[in-house]
Every structure is written in C-alpha cells, then in structure tokens.
C-alpha cells in the first residue's frame, strides 16, 4: 500500500499506536540527533521526492515520541527531506518507544545495511555507538552482521589527519588509499603524501610504492643520525679531557654563562633586553642593550 498526501485519516496517538502506522504533521517531526550520515545528496533527494510524488510513500518513516508533542526520526531521514520538498502537511509514521542508545543503534544499523554511508561517517558512527553504549567491537560487529576485523579497520581510519578524512569522505581517495596512509604516523606527512596522490592521480599500488619510499627515506635518515651521534661520542671520548679548575679559581666560560642566565631572568621578568654574542678572530664580543625605561634611576 502506498500512502498519498491526500489521505487525511489519523489514528489516536495513545500507547495502543506504538509500532502501528499513524499520521502526524510533518512540522512536528525533527531529524535524528544520532544520524550517522552528515552529508545528503540533494540530487538523490530530489529524485526520491519525484518518485514519491508519482507512486506515493511506500514505506512510512519510523519515529519515536519526543518532547513537546514532537517526533524524532529513527529511520527515514531521506524520506523526510523528500516530503519537505513536496510540502506534505501530514505524513504516515510508525511510532516506536526507544531510548537514546537504541535510537542511535537503530539509525546506524539502518544506514549501514543500506550501504549509503561514506567510510568516515561509518567509522564515526561506530565510535559513537561504542562510546555511548559501552559495548565492545565484537558486540557491535554482531549487531551489524559484520566481522570484528571489519569494524576495527573502519575505526582505524579515524587516526588519519582531518585533511585525509575529508578527502576520503568526498571520495577523492578510496578506503584502500586511506589504509595505506595509516602506515604514516605523522599527520603533516600524511597530508604531504595525500597531495602527491591527488596531483598525480595515483592508484593504490602506486600509493603503496610512494609510501614505501617515504618510510625507507625516513629510516635511512634515522640511521645516519644515529651513526653521527655515535661518531660524535667517539670523538669526544678520544679528545683529552680539559684540566678541571681548582675551587675558587676564576673561569671565563662560567662567567659568560652566568651573564646569559641573568639576561634570561631579566627577559622573564619583562625587561626589554637584547643579548648578542659574536666570536671573531682574536676576540669574543658581547653586546647587551637594555631600554632606558627599564633602567632604575
């Protein structure tokens, strides 16, 4: 049975109607606050509204009672948006009594089963349900008829940088591109690789090669830095140690360090002071400048 906008029959909104079809004013319905989908394709909404206009509404929205006589959508937000385009006044709905956790879970399950969430929306929805319901990944996977590894891999995507997540949500890169980028821990490096992927239109295999090279370069740089540190330590060990100063003996280097420390204290206390040191051939020069306003008379 298809519901048409011209139908006006309305049933009682008592407890007996829970789970049954009733008709309510469209302006009394509000979107689902736990809706996992953040982007709606306006073209598809328009197409849906045209289909409803021609054939009627084949399946009512599922809602729950909300405050001040309103109803919150549990399932059917695309239908809600399409009906608003058609300016329907009253619409058929199925009223169910669900709490916040059940509402969030049902909204997620409906969207995932319809496979109309992008990977980022799906991952964020999983995280929201896990946090709100305090359930395990395995329990969520069982609800969705998915494997635990599937849920875990989706959640891992949330470790990507905001720039990469945006590209993934907008289908500029695939989920497999995203999984390759997870091999890089630093977000700024992820963004650099992403730019190359987009500029050169790299496929997943090419992206893997690019990241392999990037990681190898980083490993080589770390190894060189480690070798240099080892060499520096060896050089220091081979040099004869300078004779220690006797207690009370004047030391120029120590005095210079004390001057630097005092300059730092002055800056910390708000004094306008500049300190410039210059090592020239044959002598060592220090220039200290303090603003007149900071000098006590």
UniProtKB/TrEMBL annotation:
Compartments reported by the entry: Cytoplasm, Nucleoid
Basic and acidic residues: compositionally biased ranges: 213-238
Entry's Gene Ontology BP terms: chromosome segregation; positive regulation of sporulation resulting in formation of a cellular spore
Pfam family, one: ParB_N
Gene3D superfamilies: 1.10.10.2830, 3.90.1530.30
Main location group: cytoplasm
Domain called ParB-like N-terminal: residue spans: 22-112
PANTHER family in UniProt: CHROMOSOME-PARTITIONING PROTEIN PARB-RELATED, NUCLEOID OCCLUSION PROTEIN
Protein name: ParB-like N-terminal domain-containing protein
Native organism: Companilactobacillus ginsenosidimutans
